[in-house]
Protein 1
Amino acid sequence: MVGQQEANEMVRGEGIVKRFGHLTVLNGIHFQVKRGQVVVIIGPSGSGKTTLLRCINHLEKIDSGRIYVDGQLVGYREVNGKLLEDSEANIARMRSQIGFVFQRFNLFSHKTALENVMEAPIYVLHEPRNVVRERALANLEKVGLADKANAYPRQLSGGQQQRVAIARALAMKPKLMLFDEATSALDPELVGEVLKVMRQLAEEGMTMVVVTHEMHFAREVADHVIFMDKAQIVEEGPPEQIFGNPQNERTRDFLRRID
Ligand code: ADP
């Protein structure tokens, strides 16, 4: 299917349906993320934002539809027109190219910040230790934590831990970064330092899909905003449109309520 891909396309979702039991959580989602774009997904709690993000790297299996990342079908192989589940090895390889930053950072508590960042490139990519170490230090510097390389997670604030988690994701040299409410678990005074790192990544041209409640960030950093409600994309467009002149009543209603 690579032939059908637009050259500048990083992610494409076609007719995504996801159910949990009888509950349809994604009901026919089509979306696109271009290379270098920051796409922010907003919407009420329970609308399916996190699930959509998790489907992109196959943490959730979709019930129908297709997702492509960089031209590759995610989670499945197409054989004679039929979709077969892809091998664990292929899925792991695909995931290793996609950075995922969660609400909870889940750092290894018995490892330093530097060791946390070095872990995956050594054990997943099997890169030489000295190369990984150099890059890990550069990534810690990028998130403003060069001086905390030898600190353990318990010695770091929530905001610092989340920045280590971002450095850890960057250490895999991802082509795409997914952020799932990366600042929601933080004390309010620590939110800004994490958003700053995300903004910097966006400015450097990283392709990002961001689920967030930070509307200020969405307005300023997004190239494209998707508003979801009740398992569907209700409205999408540039931030000026979604925030400045929303067309749909449900979008207007949501933005009014969170103001
Ligand atoms: P959002 O991120 O917009 O808050 P979610 O994608 O987390 O929404 O959830 C969408 C719906 O799917 C909710 O009703 C939620 O309860 C349900 N859901 C999410 N994950 C699971 C799961 N693993 N099992 C059952 N239901 C789930």
Note: Residues 153 and 161 are 6 Å apart (CA to CA).
Protein 2
Amino acid sequence: YAKAHSGDNYQFFDKDMNTRAVERHFIESHLRQALEAQEFVLHYQPLVNLRSGLITGAEALLRWNSSERGLVFPPDFIAVAEDSGLIVPIGRWVFLEACTQARRWLNAGLQQISIAINISTVEFRRRDFLAGVRSIIEGTGVDPKFLQLEITESALMQDSKAGASILRELKALGLQIALDDFGTGYSSLSYLKQFPIDILKIDKSFVQDINGGNEDGIIVSAVIGMGNSLKKRVIAEGVENVAQLDFLNALQCEEGQGYLFSRPVPADAFAALLSDGISQKLEVARRFAF
Ligand code: C2E
Ligand code: MG
Ligand code: MG
Ligand code: MG
């Protein structure tokens, strides 16, 4: 197709493809050593009760502290990790590290909060996934009721029978299940009936432009209403300003997460947030809302 175009077009297209292939190759080859070189780190973003401003949990978010590139964010390496299978050992590290951190906070006498961990569809579908979860829970002694696994609709799509059975086993262990990025996948509302899901996370793309009567606002309002009626916890992602917060509060959305409260931060900074609380910051944000 590129050849059909003449001159500059062809050149630019070709160069762009080449750059991307080189970038991908760089990431994959360095990702292989990143685990051993201990270049991964988890940052934590608070989940917040929207009425009280109190922290209800943390989402663990992976960062790659590359010796050559500095801090690299998931959108730049998760897909490569999934395609190469590296997501499996990386995901196991994430799970172990998050559980270990939960123990550290508990041992330090901090309030026990739940930790949300993102699980790739590639990990979820593996036969040894459950065994891995079990052994890390046993090894770290973390109470499973404080763990939330975030999966996306794609994990449940292909083999829904197998998916349902894994979710049931996770529930039997005592973990909570969240459907992440809700509304962006091939959402089928029947998932909510078919699978034991505790939490709906409304994708940030819907939250970004909510105001009064526009389409995103209507969708968010419907999801919150449905989630509340089905007795699920509903969490809005990507809350960046007070107008969004007020809109969500008016619709009785219980929980949210977003830059308005805090960006994802290293474990130490998160512990400081836990002891300081967030409500104070919220008050400040409100005062500037005019
Ligand atoms: P996600 O699970 O939907 O996580 C939320 C993403 O939204 C995070 O991006 C977070 O930094 C960002 N975010 C939070 N609040 C705001 C806000 O107010 N505005 C905006 N614009 N963004 C906000 P991040 O950390 O870059 O992660 C991106 C995605 O990568 C995650 O989306 C998740 O799907 C994936 N990911 C992150 N960590 C892991 C991991 O440990 N394992 C796996 N398999 N995937 C991960
Ligand atoms: Mg998530
Ligand atoms: Mg996710
Ligand atoms: Mg999400």
Note: Residues 41 and 82 are 18 Å apart (CA to CA).
Protein 3
Amino acid sequence: ETITIQELSNRMAERGVDVIKLLMKQGQMLKINDTIDADMAQLIAEELGHTVKRVAESDVEEGLFRIGDEDGDLVSRPPVVTIMGHVDHGKTSLLDAIRSTKVAAGEAGGITQHIGAYQVESKGQKITFIDTPGHEAFTAMRSRGAKATDIVILVVAADDGVMPTTVEAINHTRAAGVPIIVAINKIDKPDADPQRVRTALLQHEIVVESMGGDTLEVEVSAKQRLNLDKLLEAVLLQSEVLELKANPTRPAEGTVIEGKLDKGRGPVATVLVQRGTLKVGDILVAGGAWGRVRALLTESGDAVRDAGPSTPVEVLGFQETPEAGDRFAVVENEARAREVADYRLRVKREKAQARGSAARGSLAEMMSQLKESGRKEFVLVVKGDVQGSLEAIVGALEKLGNDEVRARIIHGGVGGITESDVSLASASNAAIIGFNVRASKEAREASEREGVEIRYYNIIYDLVDDVKKAMSGMLTPEI
Ligand code: GDP
């Protein structure tokens, strides 16, 4: 596959001379009628802020995820819940307590395995819990296109209050547009002060019901198993509001929650079915992996014939191990499964090659994407060295903008740039700004992998000026 520079420029509605300049920066001295290969064309197009869709992509992916073909057959489905909160506030304890009191599948006291998600029953209704607490996994999955969580339970320890990771979790959840239920945990402790938690949450624009807001809150003790029923009722109440529905009669689609290579059983994946029903014998693709379902197992190890919407199941029969966050879909036959899997692996390789210079979250590219999409928000994650400068920066950035575009800061925090910041930025197509702080090694690696731009500043004026320029489309891409 090749294309002339002229043709490429035409398709992008860009000037040929600009394309030639970019190619020069790549070390290629070419003229307008010369041809370049598809990879280089993609790289250039992305550099100029275009979203590249190769024809083959729509051919291959077409019809794989058929959103919108479910009218008429929609029935309610259980909510899928993720638990988040600060370290040691009791996320794991809460997950364990809920699991051991309420496991839906299997007999009480039966051996349950950690397969990455489980279901419980409350008042005859099912609720699915994702078994990996914290916002890291949540956001990592989201950055891979998966939206697996309907409701987030935010755990705040009543003796410790709102902490930095609590705030991070709030921002990650908000960026995903997922409703929060607050679980004020450890109320058994003598120094528990639930009221302080409620007040502190106000600062982060979470107004709980008892203070006149609409965020549900429940005081619990994971340790003494107090009010777990109430918490589950709150989840059901919230999910009623969300009117969660899916069509169980179509071929299954969903998200991979966990993937591992098991010595005895081969590749094993826990998947969350989100639409349709997954059956033994189905052929499915997940990312670059495919397989024929040999067996479906619940968290209690029971073999089942099928799994409907919001059900987590272990799938045996993959040829390779899919990754957490991969979306899966059932396809008509093996040939199709191979075709999609091969194609995706190829695209993944190509993207990895092209990435280095085509940062997805670069300020300039984000601007041109914004222009194309007609969206009006310039999304940023801001990290600063001290609270004072952070507030000054956020204040200044929020004042920028006009009717066409304004900055939206989805997360601001004190401290170095972490992998979690990059993950959030990637999931939200945001850029990261660091003021007097650096990125950790992991964060730098993740930013390269995910193509998220990190910009560092030590003068507030420069920072604000750059964003202003980017917003007016004047910032030249860094190459
Ligand atoms: P995570 O880091 O958020 O997953 O927190 P853990 O579930 O590991 O809990 C941290 C510590 O708090 C552990 O020592 C738990 O036993 C304790 N803990 C959790 N929930 C409660 C609770 O409701 N009451 C009391 N007193 N301790 C709790």
Note: The chain is about 35% helix and 25% strand.
